[in-house]
Amino acid sequence: MNFENFIRNIPDFPIKGIQFKDITTLLKDSEAFPMAVDYMYAPFRTEEITKIVGIESRGFIFGAALAYKLNVGFVPVRKPGKLPAATLSEEYQLEYGKDSLEIHKDAINSLDRVLIVDDLLATGGTAAATCALIKRLEGTIVGLTFLIELTQLKGREKLADYEVHSLIQYEI
Ligand code: AMP
After folding, report:
1. Are 122 and 18 within 8 A, CB to CB?
2. What angle do CA 169, 30, 142 make, to 5 degrees?
3. What are the residue boundaries of the structural domains of the chain, listed by start?
4. 3-state secondary structure of 153
């Protein structure tokens, strides 16, 4: 299956200059969506995994589907102020300014082997902050899997310690 055919490019969304990769066109397809989830998992199929960590918000969609498939737990990493119980927080750099992500303190422990899931790898700031949260909770990071990678933004360089997989690469 050519997954690229299911991704819709929206120029200048949400701001001028961004080529937004719209995945809703893949999600609504009854064959492409489950097949994409299977392919996102395939490189890690020989690994022991105890938790899927999904990054808000589109990482929840792929991550939850994968957790169900693997019969393992799902842990959300969220934007600030969304998680109700005690959290750890990690700041990361945006192009302009800073943002942060949070995880529940009791979501991961030292016995966990974690696969991180998101829809898209751009600069890698979001994914690197997520790795930092999991390491602070002493979890083992098995790897990271993305549907899409924007290769020119070199997000992989921020994730050099980990196994990183993506299904579709764009060189824009
Ligand atoms: P980054 O931290 O730069 O790797 O950005 C990754 C996060 O931002 C992911 O959660 C994506 O959903 C979102 N994102 C960044 N760039 C795009 C884009 N061009 N199209 C769609 N989503 C994007």
Report:
1. no
2. 50
3. 3-170
4. helix
Q: For residue range 146-165, list pLDDT tens digits in order.
A: 999 999 999 999 999 999 99
pLDDT digits (tens, 9 = 90+) for 109-146: 999 999 999 999 999 999 999 999 999 999 999 999 99
Ligand 1 contact via 166 beta carbon (within 6 Å): no
β strands within the chain, DSSP E: 8-11, 19-22, 51-55, 73-77, 87-93, 98-104, 113-121, 140-150, 164-170
Q: Tell which one of 57, 61, 126, 151 to mutate to probe ligand 1, the residue whose CB is within 8 A of the most ligand atoms.
A: 126
Q: Is the CB of 124 under 6 A from ligand 1?
A: yes
CB 63 within 8 A of CB 126: no
Whether CATH 3.40.50.2020 fits 3-170? yes
Residue 54 amino acid letter: G
Task: Read off the pLDDT of residues 52-101 as tens digits, 9 standing for 90 and up.
Answer: 999 999 999 999 999 999 999 999 999 999 999 999 999 999 877 899 99
CA nearest ligand 1 atom 11, residue: 120
